[in-house]
Amino acid sequence: MASDSESLAALEILMNEFFAPQTSNDRKREIECLLHNFSSQQGAWKHCLYFMSNSSNHFVCMYSLTTIEKIITKQWLGLMWEDRAQLKATLYQLALEHHQTAPNFIRNKLVKLVVDIARLDWPHFYPDFFTNILQLIQNSETTVLGLVFLQTASEELVCPWEDLSVSRKEELRRLLLAHIPQVFSILTALLERVAQKQRHGVTATPPPSPTHGQPNSTSPVHSGSLLSSMFGSSRCSLENDSDSIASLTLQALAHLFSWVPLASYITPNLVTALFQLATITQSSPRDEGQCVGTLAMAAVNEIMYKNCVPSSCEEFLLNLFQQALHLLHNLLQAGNLDQIDETYLEKVTEFLRLFVGLHLRRLENNSRFPILEFLTLLFKYTFQQTNLDGYYNCLDVWTIFLEHLQTHKASIERYNDALVSLVGQILRKTQFKYNQAQLEELDDESLDDDKQTEWQNFLRQNIEVIAKVAELLPMDTYNQVYEPWKESVMVYMRLERALEENEDCRKLVVTAEHECLRLHCLLRDLSSLTQAVGRMYPHFIGEVLAARFSHSQKLMTQLTAMATYASRLQLHHIQVSAGVLTSDLVEVHAQVLAAMKAWCHWLAQMHSEAGLKHMYNQFIIDIVDATVPLLAKQGEPAKLYHSAAHLLASLTMTVRPARLWEVESVRDLYRKVASLSYLPSESQRLVKRALCCTLLLPCAGLADQGWDQRQKLLAALLESLTIDFRQLQHTSPVSPQAACPVITSTLTLLNDLVTGMQSESSNTRQLLYSAIQMNIYQTLSMFPTYVHSPSVCEVILDFFLTAFGGLQQQLGASFTETTVQTFLDVFTREHLSSSLGQEGGAGARVVDKFLQLLQLVMAEPGHQFKRFVPSTITLCLDHVYPLVAETPSPDIKPSLFALLHAILMHKWQYFYRSSLLQTMNQMGNETVEHREEFIKILQAYGQSLLQPDINIFGQNLRSLEQLNSKWKLYHKHLFGEELLSQFVTVLLHSLIHKSHALLEEEITVAIYHMAAVNFKAFQSDFLPQFLRSTEGLDDGQRSILQRNFKDDVDLPSFTQNVQRLVNDLRCYRLCNYSLPAGSIKL
């Protein structure tokens, strides 16, 4: 047998060869096999200790440490006491001897292995573990090592590792907490010493007094202090050793703060020390010590994340926030945010967000906290941001603050000035008039994932904050938006004077470059401000309509005048010297129409006001004149078509003016509705829907709705819109490729109409049904013809889904039965198999739609639909389920199980026909009809819980819970005798194996409800049987698990018992599997 020195030499050769770039993959696999065999042999760890002590090869050291790690984590309890003592002592000694010379990754690995041993042995078999850490930190030669040990201990001993029982986890946390006061005291001293060293290095002249020129010299933000004197100091980097110690200390503190309770542990001195470092380093050059400041703020933020703060800690929080205000004040006073590291600023912004979101309510009314000065600093910090992400993050802070005020409206008055200033500054930031250089850099062409350009996103985020302020100060905000908008409108309305017309064209005489630039900026600002004006409408409707009517009437008059003016002059068709002006003019016109669309809600309420009929009618005429001629004309910009179509749709669906179809221009649009192909597809849909809604929707305040006339006009309109569709039934079968566009466009239109009318009156739905009845019949008759065309089938089934949901009463039971039977006849087992096997998923989508349709049928209460229950169950269990049962996650599984859920939920009497009196009797007297089908459905549920698809698992778990809530499923004798224990077993195993960890809470609640059928039987019968059938445990461990599961019957306690059972069972199995054969289990 080779000696240790020979083995070490051979290992070094192998490791160097493995990591050599010229080594082939085959050779690497051979070396891996050799290394694995060596590390798996008995006593390999002893050789590894020798290798660690006698080799400087980093590859050898990491291999040795990895081998030892396996021994500690998987075989520790099986080692002899002497071996464990040797391993522990040697690793600790190696860490002490080599922590200054070894690379950090090796040092950190050594430390982790020692902590892993402590996780199992401390304090009983490793009593001096934590005492050693404290001594290392306090010794200047080993401070760094001690800090690494401390952070590793915090990370490894508190985390919920699987190989520890719940009692051991609780013990480790308790042991660590006992040392925390001493730890924090030592770390505070370390940070203070680092800060003291830096202060001695500051040689620059102290800054002026922070109270100079300030009216409130007693404010904590401006009072003199040690912290104040540090700001503005000359930039002085920390020494290397101080920087390293400070960084490690702050990282350790950040992790400790994440789990240590706030009360009585985190001292004011420690917080002061943290802010001292944050203050010192925030003004350091980007490459010197910036990390320390960022780490200090990260540690502070860990404290801020603690939301559950006892009232006794208010003084502590006040001290913390006062120091934060110092930092923010001096950060802004320097005026150089562009020179500060972005990561540091992100931490500062995170602090502000946490403060406002979690803690402001605690200090808002404290007389010693200067809330208005805080808002002033937040305001300055927001608008001194030098990049968009930083600015957006600050807007998020303001949004949180505004939402806070929404719930405390009584205290808004003192914030009025701050909110008005905020709106004013946001408006300045979004206007080219004040911020052209930055705004010109924003991309207005490329779309992001939300289909917005960078400019649109910027504008939206700003306007949303303005809208939030408007909810609190509606008129103040409106006036701030309205005034600059009005000024821009005045210039816009004078553009007509700058037009020059000749025989060939119309020309804008603004030609000078600087004048074109000014006009470009004005039009961009007008467009932005018009968007903001559009967002103001909610504050002029409802109870305040009359009180604020003069403002809203004036605004709406200006908007309609602008729209009429733009349509009349066709400004986007004039010749301009700068091409960008054309797109600017189109954008303004489109935004005006969009703003009018928003204000249609105001116009709808205006109709009911007495004495305003003439004004109301004029607004209607103006909107029609601004939209219909534009939509009727070819060659206009798509953006204008889009805005005009949306405005017309809102006019007809929201305002609903009387007899709009009698207006001449609207009548012309009706006549040419079938020839609007030049419009973009969405605009076409909107216009057609708007024209139909004019006839379908009742007009407000009109006694005679003229339903007879509406019916004739609607029939004529839909006849012209569906003529191509109707011709399909009079010609020989058209190929699916040719028929698909016609069927799709027609049924999409009808789909839109049915969807829009679902919540309307029965008169409206009856009118719609009478107009599309023949189309519905034709669609059903066509279905068998196109059943082998998935694209056509999908559209047809989608339409019937909508029709069944919106026109069920009008369709009637007889037609519904005919429709369902037609579909059932078509969807044979062979057809289903063929559809689900098609590439691209088109066939699966068709089957999915069909199953969704059957869900609606099963949910119908009428007795005539009961006859479809057997055929639907057969379809599900015999035809569809066998095709998808074993596939991991097919598209139709959600709909299949949703249909089974609908059957059980709405057709429960198909299985249980017992009366209420019988239901209240003993479970043993229950009579179950169609027993086999009932069991097969629930077995399908159970099978789905064994598969990895978490969506299906969650869907079916919720379904079972709903069935239990409504029909007491778990209490049924059949379920209890044949299925209950199986379901509980499956759910417990899912917790043990963490197969659906995201649903842990829902799974535990379901287990509770199942156990609640008979808690005594669960405890005395099920649990022992479950533990006996669970492999990887010995009888002693089973006894402990049974004994630790208390007989609590409330949900919180039961949940804790389940969590303890699952954790400890997993822990025992891991430990048992890692022990060598013949080991004694303790």
What are the SSEs and their pairings?
Layout (H helix, E strand, L loop, with lengths): L3 H15 L6 H16 L3 H11 L3 H18 L5 H18 L5 H18 L7 H10 L4 H16 L7 H35 L25 H5 L9 H18 L10 H15 L7 H15 L9 H21 L7 H22 L7 H13 L4 H19 L9 H14 L2 H9 L13 H19 L1 H20 L5 E3 L4 E3 L4 H22 L14 H21 L10 H27 L6 H19 L6 H18 L8 H8 L9 H16 L10 H15 L1 H5 L8 H22 L4 H21 L7 H17 L1 H19 L2 H8 L5 H18 L8 H17 L8 H14 L9 H4 L11 H14 L5 H18 L5 H6 L1 H13 L7 H12 L3 H15 L5 H10 L6 H24 L8
Antiparallel strand pairs: 1-2
Helix pairs in contact: 1-2, 1-3, 3-4, 3-5, 4-6, 5-6, 6-8, 7-8, 8-11, 9-11, 9-12, 11-13, 12-13, 12-14, 13-15, 14-15, 14-16, 15-17, 16-17, 16-18, 17-20, 18-20, 18-21, 20-21, 21-22, 22-24, 23-24, 23-25, 24-25, 24-26, 25-26, 26-28, 28-29, 28-31, 29-32, 31-32, 31-33, 32-34, 33-34, 33-36, ...
Summarize the structure.
By secondary structure, this protein is mainly alpha-helical.
Task: Explain what this protein looks like in three dimensions.
By secondary structure, this protein is mainly α. Helix content is about 70%, strand content about 0%. The model is unreliable at about 200-235, about 285-290 and about 1080 (pLDDT under 50).
Output the keywords.
Importin-beta_N, mainly alpha, two-stranded antiparallel sheet, protein transport, 1082 residues, Exportin-1/Importin-b-like, 2 strands, nucleus
What value does the average pLDDT take? 88
How would the global form be characterised?
Answer: globular
**DSSP strand content:** under 5%
The residue fraction in helices comes out at: 55-70%
Sheet with the most strands, sense and barrel status: 2 strands, antiparallel
From the N-terminal CA to the C-terminal CA, the straight-line distance is: 35 Å
Outline the low-pLDDT stretches: 202-237, 283-289, 1078-1082
Helix/sheet category: mainly alpha
Q: Helix count, per DSSP?
A: 47
Total DSSP E strands: 2
What is the CA-based Rg, rounded? 38 Å
Spatial order of the strands forming the largest sheet = 1-2
